[in-house]
Amino acid sequence: MRDLATDSVSRRVLVVDDSRAQRHLLAVQLARWGYAVTEAATGVDALALARGQDFDLVISDWMMPGLTGPELCQAFRALPRDGYGYFILLTSKSGQEAIATGLDGGADDFLTKPVSALELRARVRAGERILGMQAELLAKNHALRRAHDAMEADLSQARRLQQSLIRDRHRDYPAGAVALMMRPSGHVGGDLVGMVDLMPGRIGLYAVDVAGHGVAAALMTARLAGLLSEASGDRNIALEVGLDGRRQIVPPDQVAQRLNRLMAEEFGVEQYFTLIWAELDLATGQVTLVQAGHPHPLILRAGGRVEVVGQGGFPIGLLPDADWHPVDFILNPGDRLLIPSDGLTECPGAEGELGLSGLSRLLRRTADLDGRAALAGIESALAAYAGAEFPDDLSAILFDRRAY
Q1: Residue ranges making up the domain that contains 257
Q2: How far apart are CA 286 and CA 307, in angstroms?
Q3: Rounded distance, CA 49 to CA 76, Å?
């Protein structure tokens, strides 16, 4: 075995032939054209060389002792390597069966003996074009992989930031407790749930589902969190300062109308979202709720009966002059209120979507658990029902009323 090279090395070529004269003739021609040439007398020697370094092209005789050209080609293809290796078989065979055998072994091209210099150069140049295209494709794939990895890192960070929009997942009050669940189907989602202390003894509960998924929906939830969340302080859209200078609570139907105007006049996007905004008096259990396209809330009464509440209504951002009508009800000590997203009610399974009836069964089944454990149990049951990854974001609010 010996190496031949010139100063203008462009490609590494392995020449394999048990005929020393034929091997040397090919090597001299290739070296004259600027290739770095390595010779091997047998297929076994060639395979050993290929394990130690990457060759761009292999030119191998068909009939050799120990390991034939097609067998060498098959073994060469099985080697781990970064780029592609172009394989040319030398043969005196020209039948279709022989060509099929070579192609099955992974050969790229054939040269018929005796080999002319013009044909050799033409076939090698054809191989170089293939290798060039493969290298370009590989470089693009690496660039895409780097871009994908960077995007994955950004989306993972965005997920953490979106989850941070919920400052507390659980909060205890003298007359009850709130538990929240928010699980996007992808890195980020369009669901948002939260609670806000409006005034002493009065809290607000909100659930939002922005149409669509991904970054655009997540950015909208961040904008809405700035209008609805406790962190907004006096800038919360559900609060205003009265003529007497004191803070007042905005009725739920007016909250929906304010958000609808903002979507039409300031946001400047063709998006809409569903909403539940509920104002709750902790001392009396009085709830005033507006429903804008969001799934119906459920009340699990202390005696085990489940009630569906709400009047539907248009989503926010669809109609500029839409109106919403509040719904009033009382939560008695021992009652539980569940505000689900459509990721729960529309969870798919073998029997179809779960629906409000299926969710009611899960609500009863988890009645003896505290709020956080109940939501975890509902999520686990949904996973079992779906039998796969959730196709939609999951979010929910659960409020347990107890004696004040």
Answers
A1: 164-401
A2: 16
A3: 10
Report if residue 373 sits inside a domain: yes
| pLDDT computed for residue 221 by the predictor | 81
**Residue 394 token pair:** 């999951």
Q: Residue 375 and residue 343: Cα distance in Å, rounded?
A: 13
Percent of the chain clearing pLDDT 90 (strictly above): 56
Q: Which residues make Cβ contacts (< 8 Å) with residue 200, sequence separation at least 6?
A: none
Task: Say yes or no: 268 and 223 in one domain.
Answer: yes
- Distances in whole angstroms, Cα of residue 162 to Cα of each of 71, 218, 294: 56, 7, 21
> Are the C-beta atoms of 299 and 339 separated by less than 8 Å?
no
Give the confidence band of 260 by pLDDT, cuts at 50, 70, 90. Answer: very high
20 lies in some domain:
yes
pLDDT tens profile 98-154 = 666 667 778 999 888 888 899 999 999 999 999 988 888 888 888 888 876 666 665
Q: What is the pLDDT of residue 231?
A: 61
Length of the chain in terms of residues written: 404
122 lies in the same domain as 180: no
With residue 31 as reference, give the H or E element that holds it: helix 20-32
Please tell me whether residues 171 and 215 are part of one structural domain.
yes
* 154 within a domain of the structure (yes/no): no
Question: Which of 139, 173, 194 is the last residue in one of the domains?
Answer: 139
Residues 33, 181, single domain; the answer is no
**Are 171 and 302 in the same domain?**
yes
Q: CATH code at 32?
A: 3.40.50.2300
4 or 265, which is more confident: 265
10 and 126 part of one domain: yes
Residues 323 and 184 in one domain: yes
Count of structural domains within the chain: 2
- The per-residue pLDDT for 376 is 94
Segment 354-383, tens digit of pLDDT: 999 999 999 999 999 999 999 999 999 998
Mean pLDDT of 382-402: 87
Residues 105, 178: one domain? no
Cβ pair 3, 36 in contact under 8 A: yes
pLDDT of 250 > 90? The answer is yes
Q: Which band of pLDDT confidence, cut at 50, 70 and 90, is reported for residue 7?
A: very low
User: Rounded distance, CA 350 to CA 337, Å?
Assistant: 28
**Paired residues of 352 in beta bridges:** 349
Of 283, 300, 305, 298, the C-alpha closest to 402 is 283
Q: How far apart are CA 126 and CA 323, in angstroms?
A: 71
